[in-house]
Write a structure and sequence with these properties.
single chain, alpha/beta, Heat Shock Protein 90, six-stranded antiparallel β-sheet, 14 helices
């Protein structure tokens, strides 16, 4: 008899221990899941399933406090409870648990004055336990129900309390995450608006400086001053672009327009663009480029941005009489696959502190940490480079032998098969160019007048419209070859103007160019969808603008 009793006790203990292990394993799984959620809905889904498993209850409900009401958000039960319904805090047991900051354990609902019986009569509930979520300042409750009389055990109550504590932490994390997300969204909106507001005054200044350069040339005191002003305007524009790019990249808003290009040509073009700056800095450029084409699918604009950033970095951190080495090489993969191009930019400058090499491509990391900040920058350029290179399926790495021993940046990009050179039958010569009728739709008078002056310098006939409605009316009257239109116009914005004109057969052979302070990838996509042929940001480099205008000759040839 004694042995039988001991066996029975031992079996019960083993069963209890097994139950404990199973329950706490389930609870551990829930804690891990709740640590990763980002929405309240995810929390509710996890908890409503787990609460029933942990208590072996016939039903559970998830309640959130909504002002002075209890909102029965969701349930998991053998029969319907109160999903979606709201009750005053003082009229339901979940409200009692929240107001009193303690669990309510009820073995028989018909014997407890706290229970609103009319609400329970239509349900299966006979017994329950209701535990508040976050006892110190309850924001909800989790209830477990049984269809037969049941006195919740200390273990069941304990498991529910652990679950509610974990739920409270998860809700706090979600609220914090949502707050940070909203703040980041506001920050992005502010940066976009700041960029737009900065570009508006910079645009007419840039237009004026470029006109002065055309009029007075690049020599003499005035010419050198004009070049200095142009250099500083380009630097300011670059800083604005970096601010927008890092924000867009962070939220995955940048897309690439991939085309097949010869990387050798792109590198040469970018070097030509930087030739004046390299010469002015009294630096020697040593380049080693392949004699045969190296073809790759790239977004040429973004490639120039990547290579330009690396060249600017080499310029910024080099001393006078220093050397910059630029190498482009082709590395063939095994069995003809996996071939890559390696673009290297190396300098003899100040080098990189080994302690920051590992974080060099992180946003806001500065190689120049001196008090005078003589080399400027926002610490965003290399972060943008890394992100753009990776979007192309490549990688970038930095190395340095130490302080004052120079630095090297290597960009590796996948390449494609060789393509025979194309005949350039569509090359534009000076003889093929002609005076064009150009309409500028711009509400900023300084920007419009300065742009008009530059375009007229090139021999074009230029008209101005100060708003969208007048722009559409003027365009239909003059039928211009080129329409340069701002986006942020009063009353009728640039998107609406483009949609209106692109539907008119009069303008099928016209080139419609967006010239705007809004420069995000989303803005570019919207501009192309609206009917613009291209999207340029203020202040515009007139070599780029005239190149886009020259495309008109290709279309009309």
């Amino acid at each position: 008899m004694k042995n039988t009793l001991q066996t029975s006790i031992s079996q019960e203990q083993n069963s209890h221990q097994s139950y404990n292990i199973s329950s706490y394993n389930r609870l551990l799984s829930v804690v891990k899941d709740l640590a990763c959620v980002r929405t309240i809905e995810e929390i509710i889904e996890i908890v409503r399933l787990a609460a029933r498993d942990l208590t072996n209850a016939d039903g559970v409900t998830f309640v959130l406090r909504d002002g002075e009401c209890c909102h029965y958000v969701d349930e998991n039960a053998i029969g319907p409870l109160w999903k979606g319904m709201r009750f005053p805090l003082k009229s339901c047991i979940s409200g009692w648990a929240m107001l009193n900051k303690q669990a309510a354990v009820i073995e028989d609902i018909y014997q407890d004055a706290r229970i609103p019986l009319e609400a329970y009569k239509v349900t299966f509930v006979k017994s329950l336990v209701m535990v508040p979520i976050r006892v110190s300042d309850p924001l909800g409750a989790i209830g477990a129900y049984w269809s037969t009389p049941h006195r919740a055990t200390p273990e069941e109550i304990g498991l529910l309390e652990i679950l509610t504590d974990t739920t409270a932490v998860a809700i706090a994390n979600v609220q914090l995450f949502q707050k940070l997300t909203n703040q980041n969204a506001l920050k992005d909106q502010f940066i976009a608006m700041l960029a737009h507001e900065l570009r508006n005054p910079v645009a007419p200044i840039s237009n004026g400086v470029q006109l002065l350069k055309l009029k007075v040339g690049e020599t003499g005191a005035v010419g050198e001053t004009v070049l200095m002003m142009q250099h500083q305007i380009k630097h300011l524009s670059k800083l604005i672009d970096e601010l927008l790019d890092i924000s867009s990249i962070t939220y995955g808003k940048i897309s690439l327009n991939l085309e097949k290009f010869n990387l050798v040509d792109l590198v040469r073009q970018s070097l030509n663009d930087h030739a004046q700056a390299i010469q002015k800095s009294n630096l020697t450029l040593v380049k080693d480029l392949p004699s045969t084409p190296v073809w790759a699918y790239v977004d040429s604009t973004r490639f120039f941005q990547v290579f330009g950033n690396l060249l600017d970095n080499a310029l910024k951190f080099s001393k006078p009489d220093g050397i910059i080495w630029v190498d482009l090489s082709f590395i063939r993969g095994e069995n003809g696959s996996g071939s890559v191009a390696v673009l290297s930019v190396r300098d003899s400058g100040m080098g990189i502190d080994p302690t920051i090499l590992s974080e060099l491509f992180e946003p806001f990391t500065q190689a120049d940490r001196s008090l005078d900040r003589s080399r400027g920058g926002l610490g965003l350029g290399l972060s943008v480079v890394k992100s753009l290179v990776e979007l192309h399926g490549g990688n970038v790495e930095a190395s340095s032998r130490g302080i004052n021993l120079g630095a090297e940046f290597k960009v590796t990009l996948p390449v494609c098969e060789e393509i025979p050179p194309l005949d350039n039958d569509l090359e534009i010569t000076e003889e093929t160019k002609k005076s064009l009728k150009i309409l500028v739709i711009e509400d900023n008078e300084d920007s419009a007048v300065s742009l008009q002056a530059v375009l007229e310098h090139f021999g074009h006939e230029v008209s101005i419209a100060k708003n969208g409605f007048l722009g559409v009316e003027t365009a239909r009257k003059l039928e211009p070859h080129v329409i340069i239109c701002d986006i942020g116009l009063p009353e009728m914005d640039g998107f609406a103007v483009a949609q209106e004109l692109s539907q008119d057969s009069k303008f099928t052979r016209s080139i419609l160019i967006a010239l705007t302070g809004y420069g995000s990838q989303e803005d570019r996509d919207l501009a192309l969808q609206a009917g613009f042929k291209c999207h340029l940001t203020k202040p515009v480099d007139f070599e780029i603008l005239t190149a886009e205008i020259d495309r008109y000759f290709l279309m009309s040839a």
